[in-house]
Design a protein that fits this description.
alpha+beta; Tetrahydropterin Synthase, Chain A; 5-stranded mixed β-sheet; 5 strands
Amino acid sequence: MKGFYTLEVKAHFSAAHALRGYPGDCARLHGHNWHITLFVRADKLDELGMGVDYKLLKRALKDAIAPWDHQNLNEIPPFDRINPTSEAVARELFLRLADTINQPGIRVVAVRVAETCTAAATYQEVEGLVA
């Protein structure tokens, strides 16, 4: 039986957004303290017994969200064209972080975005599945 390790780091940022076309209050500009969880798969451990150094994962996540902190997401690509929903933010972060982190034996497997303590969206890709 072959196993793997799932590493998890968290970060947060504050930003405003408005959901275009939404039939309710969320169509108006409002803000959230967005809480992000990054999940990374490591197939093996290094000589120190780590899959990936948490410091590296935290830095990559912090760098990915830094341009959005204290901004109106509707004014920042790609959210100037698509609605800045939790789902869209999760997918965008997943793609950005995968470009930075993925290497043989190490892969971003999911990104969770919570805009409140009771509502979150997770984006993950399934290997071999074509969207």
